[in-house]
Amino acid sequence: MINTKTGELLLLLICFSLISNTVISERPSTCPADDLDGGCGFHDSGEWEGEFFPGIPKIKYEGPSSKNPLAYKWYNANEEILGKKMKDWMRFSVAFWHTFRGTGGDPFGAATKMWPWEDGSNSLAMAKRRMRANFEFLEKLGVDRWCFHDRDIAPDGRTLEESNANLDEIVALAKELQGTKIRPLWGTAQLFLHPRYMHGGATSPQIGVYAYAAAQVKKAIEVTHYLGGENYVFWGGREGYQTLLNTDMERELDHMARFFEAAVAYKKKIGFNGTLLIEPKPQEPTKHQYDWDAATTANFLRKYGLIGEFKLNIECNHATLSGHSCHHELETARINGLLGNIDANTGDPQIGWDTDQFLMDISEATLVMLSVIKNGGLSPGGFNFDAKLRRESIDVEDLFIAHVAGMDTLARGLRNAAKLVEDGSLDELVRKRYQSFDTELGALIEAGNADFDLLEKRAMEWGEPQVPSGKQELAEMIFQSAM
Amino acid sequence: MINTKTGELLLLLICFSLISNTVISERPSTCPADDLDGGCGFHDSGEWEGEFFPGIPKIKYEGPSSKNPLAYKWYNANEEILGKKMKDWMRFSVAFWHTFRGTGGDPFGAATKMWPWEDGSNSLAMAKRRMRANFEFLEKLGVDRWCFHDRDIAPDGRTLEESNANLDEIVALAKELQGTKIRPLWGTAQLFLHPRYMHGGATSPQIGVYAYAAAQVKKAIEVTHYLGGENYVFWGGREGYQTLLNTDMERELDHMARFFEAAVAYKKKIGFNGTLLIEPKPQEPTKHQYDWDAATTANFLRKYGLIGEFKLNIECNHATLSGHSCHHELETARINGLLGNIDANTGDPQIGWDTDQFLMDISEATLVMLSVIKNGGLSPGGFNFDAKLRRESIDVEDLFIAHVAGMDTLARGLRNAAKLVEDGSLDELVRKRYQSFDTELGALIEAGNADFDLLEKRAMEWGEPQVPSGKQELAEMIFQSAM
Amino acid sequence: MINTKTGELLLLLICFSLISNTVISERPSTCPADDLDGGCGFHDSGEWEGEFFPGIPKIKYEGPSSKNPLAYKWYNANEEILGKKMKDWMRFSVAFWHTFRGTGGDPFGAATKMWPWEDGSNSLAMAKRRMRANFEFLEKLGVDRWCFHDRDIAPDGRTLEESNANLDEIVALAKELQGTKIRPLWGTAQLFLHPRYMHGGATSPQIGVYAYAAAQVKKAIEVTHYLGGENYVFWGGREGYQTLLNTDMERELDHMARFFEAAVAYKKKIGFNGTLLIEPKPQEPTKHQYDWDAATTANFLRKYGLIGEFKLNIECNHATLSGHSCHHELETARINGLLGNIDANTGDPQIGWDTDQFLMDISEATLVMLSVIKNGGLSPGGFNFDAKLRRESIDVEDLFIAHVAGMDTLARGLRNAAKLVEDGSLDELVRKRYQSFDTELGALIEAGNADFDLLEKRAMEWGEPQVPSGKQELAEMIFQSAM
Amino acid sequence: MINTKTGELLLLLICFSLISNTVISERPSTCPADDLDGGCGFHDSGEWEGEFFPGIPKIKYEGPSSKNPLAYKWYNANEEILGKKMKDWMRFSVAFWHTFRGTGGDPFGAATKMWPWEDGSNSLAMAKRRMRANFEFLEKLGVDRWCFHDRDIAPDGRTLEESNANLDEIVALAKELQGTKIRPLWGTAQLFLHPRYMHGGATSPQIGVYAYAAAQVKKAIEVTHYLGGENYVFWGGREGYQTLLNTDMERELDHMARFFEAAVAYKKKIGFNGTLLIEPKPQEPTKHQYDWDAATTANFLRKYGLIGEFKLNIECNHATLSGHSCHHELETARINGLLGNIDANTGDPQIGWDTDQFLMDISEATLVMLSVIKNGGLSPGGFNFDAKLRRESIDVEDLFIAHVAGMDTLARGLRNAAKLVEDGSLDELVRKRYQSFDTELGALIEAGNADFDLLEKRAMEWGEPQVPSGKQELAEMIFQSAM
Fold this sequence. Notes:
The structure is a homotetramer.
Chain A: H1 7-20, H2 32-35, H3 37-40, E1 60-61, E2 71-72, E3 80-81, E4 84-85, H4 86-90, E5 92-95, H5 96-101, H6 124-141, E6 145-149, H7 150-153, H8 160-178, E7 183-188, H9 207-226, E8 231-234, E9 240-241, H10 249-269, E10 275-278, E11 288-289, H11 294-303, E12 310-315, H12 316-321, H13 326-335, E13 339-343, H14 362-374, E14 383-385, H15 396-423, H16 425-433, H17 440-446, H18 452-462, H19 472-481
Parallel strand pairs in A: 1-2, 5-6, 5-14, 6-7, 7-8, 8-10, 10-12, 12-13, 13-14
Antiparallel strand pairs in A: 3-4, 9-11
Enzyme class (chains A, B, C, D): isomerase
Keywords (chains A, B, C, D): Carbohydrate metabolism, Isomerase, Metal-binding, Signal, Xylose metabolism
Signal peptide (chains A, B, C, D): 1-25
């Protein structure tokens, strides 16, 4: 039993997460061994001199013929596509955790990365330095939004109060660095890393954990609101089960619903108008996660009367892990009125876990953008790059190359999707398929006024119905011609 | 375009489905070639002399030590388990289609089976003979229920009227053969075999197909009602899509909802009190089937206000194809108030399509029965053997061996589950995990009266929460000890 | 037990396969019901008047800006790419079975297609008419190669002798129609459709089936040779097991090796110089197929001393079913010296069975062509379109649209791959990664002359090795820039 | 680029791996924070007082009716089954890494466990204390074998020399603690945790890493030999690729072969007679691992002439990840003469990554033991428990419960398999299936003396072959009756 009554133990824990979040690199400016005096490494490593990314210029649009890895070939922020600027379609956001806390660790391997500005500690000073790096990164990339978990921007404290104080200090700096242009696309609370959440947060069988999770979410909503965040996300990585043998699934789902209700009430109480988003994922780390996919989450929201209060944050890699195409999940969310945000990444079709790769597939990006266009854009949501460098990509420039390639892929998807929309032949193919319902009987059916007696009567009058070709290959040919 | 205005074409079609439903065997009493004169094979093949299963005795319970393949070792129909007779827990049903229309054909191979009573035709006389075989099979097996699709018990006609007339004639015989003891567990309409349904029935883009499907379901509900059926099932094998590129998913789902509404209205109109069941399946034959899994189907029912009118028919093989354990799907259905019936079969964990094997795994059967016990049984639902002989199992006795083994497996599952319930230690392990909620604050939370302010206050008072071991291995040890 | 001693039964069987190979369409010129007199449908349906594809022109290259579905936008047969004509890189072939015998049947549905030239019979006359349609199709498509199974071009007879005679008659016609330009890319024997092969051909536990399979393959090699076929393929769809419980896997694999040895001997005996190809597939129809993937097949060939006598026919859909990318299987075959031919198709990444779709993904096609270029082309192998129209694609023009789109996709892949090769930066990235082995010690290691003592010595001298970034995102960016 | 020329950096790394290997628990006897002075925590934590597992008795056999979680119900070490003692069939081994270095960390969560004897450091003293705990664990469990990676028993040093010295010191203690009864089942080198191995060891594109890996394996073979180990294992967790775009697969495989050749030579040089084992795994951590499955590894060994020098260590969880049943992989290894050892664990059939759960399924265990019996046992190999407690199982007693349940499951599998062997009806069913080959022609075929001419002659004489039922359901019924 984890019985951590004393501060020492919590301290120990903080030390652990510090290290597991730390990285290795060529020339760490400070040896962590030196940092670890006085309570596991909280010392002020001081201000960073000069740029964090000294060799990297501001990324510019150079057009498709450019061979420069550090230039956009397809993303031209202010260019208009279908009557809207590209940047307003995309609303790109950088994920703080992958970009600044990713270490390259995996279940079989230690960290491979320690960026030059890291000092090996998890101190407040280090957190501030890292935050400054984040804003330089955003600036150089030309991106106006960022996303964060509470615990990846500020260190855990000995107590909840201390953690909150740490968070306040960092958030104040972030607010200052944001200036007038930059905002969080969304914030969230990290309810999965700490061992207290091993059985879940809102669905933990331990009431103390439930209360703790509530307190943490409360604070995270507050700081998201304070920073002008446009959305708040729930990813329930531990809200699920490892085995049904030890689980009361019904009671856990009831608790989760109560938790969400309380979050809605609190959001309203403090005047936070951002969208609450749930991010479905089928499994990993749990065997079964309650927010399995878009439809499962929608069922939960409907069952508990929460359907109007939440939207979904669809992640492409989570979609494919649940057995669906990303396009399917986006469309399912959209037609349930729930498409709120997209975690732009991709998985490997032969791999059964979350690889969180940068989306590099143009066809996939085109399908994604077709859904976004049908949705009239995502605002106040956007595209968050929930994508990480491969473990073996350890150069600072890899951070830029990956984001540039990911943004270009989606931008190219937008251009292709616009071509399809403007060409119109794919839409026309679909419209024609259903035109037999654009009739009097069709109207009756769609209004719920065609009973079985009437339908049988018609069926007998008509005899064997005519059934045309589905024209799938033609549809694929048209789609492909826009690539 | 399928434009079958003439009777000849429909006739052709009937001929096709006849043959694809036919089988090969040692000594067919009649050569189909001879049958095909005068309209593609409708001739009266006359009464069958004597028993259909001459060497097979009535299957008896002989107990676990028996080595007789044609005896029950674990299923003892009238023995009481947890206060109820085994037969009342199980409510077994034989699936007409697998048992009497299964030919062993697969995507790469022709039929391998032609039972001795088959004459190679799809005539009404053959349909009657087959129905008699069905009742002898039920009698010898000691099973009181059966399930059917309209088109597998009676041949398609040249017109809907003729098909209905064929169905009436066969159903009248079935009614007579049923006597007072035997009833359909459920009936259903086959909306997937005929090419008219290639784009779906209720979700076909062709209004004529929608109407035709409605007429067919109308009739199928009528005959199920007439036969005293206790449930009616919808399996939407073609209600889905092959590609989103040519599909208006939202419109199709709206149509499906209108279709179900009309079915509910019609059921009430004719006084059919049986349960309407939807059988989820993720895919196959379509790339995506709208009734993907229990949660997806529940979301659909809730979205369209149909939640009180339907329950689910959970099939274990469909569960695993959707990425869930069968136990998960049963529990999801149960806690959504939707567990109505079980299609008792199993898939192969390494195979990505529906194998519909007889369930032979005792652990799996025990998990299934734990859910059934928690549900207080399945009545008016039951266990339908939606399982087929392997393609290579071509002896008549294989039909009996498979059913006996499948029934024994579930019976053994019931005995094991009862042992676990009576022992109580697994339940106790679960109860203890959640006992921190059996408190004052727990009650507040579960009543929706604990807001984030209160919870934060408690979290700060309590400090770091205690988190006990999940005891998964102990739970597995206890579970296993009951095998 | 299948005990088909009499001619009647075999006749029956022929009738079945006829029907299961038959299709439904708008205006069949002849009602099959009329054909079935005199022995289940062998009548001469006479010559077809005029063109089989009357509205379809010869497909021409019109370039990327064309919107004409019946024109090539990327495949320009005589254009040179990397010093070779496109047609010589591609060596396209039409699969007779999918194109001319595909009916749209699936495990849950009847045939949906009956092309206008079909008369509903499986007669020799019909087989000839179909063969003529095949050559018109090849001509209009501008493709010089075709592939066939013995039983899909000519009907099964009452006896093996009769089947052989049927085959001879059709093959003589094909020879004539081929003229000087057209040849089979490969031929093969269909050892999976007939129920006699339900337990396998070469691996059947029944010696009579083994002998029958040998006789059938003998004949199929002969006719492939006669037609000037450049390769002969073995796809062992039934060579595997459904359950290990009833299987002696070792004995079956021994039999398979003996069978292959005999095939090699026979090929040499008759002077057939074409390549023998094995086509791996992991499963379906069997639970486990012995030629699981490229590596498994290579192990089999090596174990039994057959490695020099066979190459592989890699199918992309089979690759992904076995858990690999198509590119992986091609590369595995290539570096084992076994890349002989490609079955050009694709599966659906979310589907667990063989969908045999036309490859429409440009990135995938580019990866495929990179392997082909590295292999110096595929000759005497080529690309066979082992791809079928979707069940719902029932227009004659769909056959052309699908082939045109599939050929264009691969042609575009070739153009992209050539761009990558000519650009050189991807090759350079790879070369640099390994350059530390282009050294003295590297040469020692690669020659097998660096023992552990030497290596330890160097490791200690060198201290901690330097490990550069893997640059995966950069590689993906470069790859994508060629799309 | 990782350019760690200085000792400081290596020190840093050691600190990292220390922490990532550390755990959290109720009452750590020493606060790690105190340990971290003077160089990241290497201090001597002194001897442990008293027992490591004070409340845990020596585990005894109490028979199936026992409800004691800390007693064997099925494993009775000295009981004879099929003429051999149970302990000699099983040859159980405890995996040091899972049991003593497992922390409960996962890709989304920090460590959850810190056993009471852990002091938070990775010092030599701690390594010794842990080794003593290991031997008390073995003693209490009644198990005579253990398995280890070099780096999990002794801490990494600043240099290879220092690492080797650390290892020597720990190994000397282990040798002493082993006494006369206990031996390593096998040892291995950990070539995956350290970032230097991020691109592989034997297949790293960096020659320095190749040399370093060789030096590490050299030492690991030496200490395994010194400790009397019976086998030596290669698990190439990083020997594979993340993307083919940056990989020269052929050159990497050549390097791997050279590496294995050098290992064989070194083993012989020092007189180590243990078996060299390769452990296949399809993927994770890499996208593709070169030792994908048994057949792939066999192909590699044959291609490079290494087939006689290695056997395989089959892990059930790896088997299912590669798309095979565990039974299939065992049989494939067996009939290739390669079945050397079994990593006894299981995965979750719905999970796409390695869960390394304790095998609790009795049917699965029975299939495993059927292969072991056919193999005449595994000696000098055995069963290593490559299984870990669930992350949420944090009680010390859970370690015992899990091992007891896992051992009992396999013991029960052995008893069931013996029942099947003694009953004989399953073997008889298989023998009969193939009896048509126990004939003159069968002998000719199996000797390679039946050419296609002879076989065709027989096929024509015999006519249509008889094909009996595969009796799969009967086989399953027989199998199940032994459970």
